[in-house]
Amino acid sequence: MSPLIRRIHPENPQPEFILQAAEIVKSGGVVVFPTRCLYGLGADAFHRQAVNRVFAIKQRSEQNPILVLIDHPGKLVQLAKRIPDAAIRLMERFWPGRITIVLEARDTLPDNLTAHTGKIGVRMPGHAVALALVKAVQGPITGTSANLSGRPGCHRIDDLDAQIVGQPDLILDAGRLKGGIGSTVVDVSESKPRILREGEVSSKEIFAFLSK
Hints:
By secondary structure, the protein is of the alpha/beta class. 28% of the residues lie in helices and 19% in strands. A hairpin with a 4-residue loop joins β2 and β3. The longest helix is centred in the first third of the chain and has 12 residues.
């Protein structure tokens, strides 16, 4: 069965479409939505069954954690035990978008979200639709890419894998996204920041900034 598709404006998203998507997420559903580079799978990050659906849709190993999206740095207190100075500086410099920050996770988070790592990756989205959706949900949502694990992400809804297309409850189609390598993932949960994945921001730029 095909999910409902809403063609949403990429810069000025229609409020009724955002509200519809948010209600689906808050009720335990899964939506496909645009981020800066690729389409993602959004579910309530605190809803264990919804997170399990994301794992199943992606055919993702349960040993791989899933990052989450928030609409304001102040929401980190819901997710992280502590927020190091390096995290604050990186957020002020590179958010929204561009960098995913990995922090020590609160014990209250679903362990399937963190894959029992004790850590959580967090980003404030740089795409207007993604940010509006997180604000409407009023809580963190999953931000993993809408692709089968191990396969490339998609920057057009037409390129969604056939095994994924029929599984979400709603698709927000904002047209072609810019594509590319996605956000850089920086782990600041330990004494020295580490680059887990180099993306839009180079490790050289990050370490040069942090060394100032």
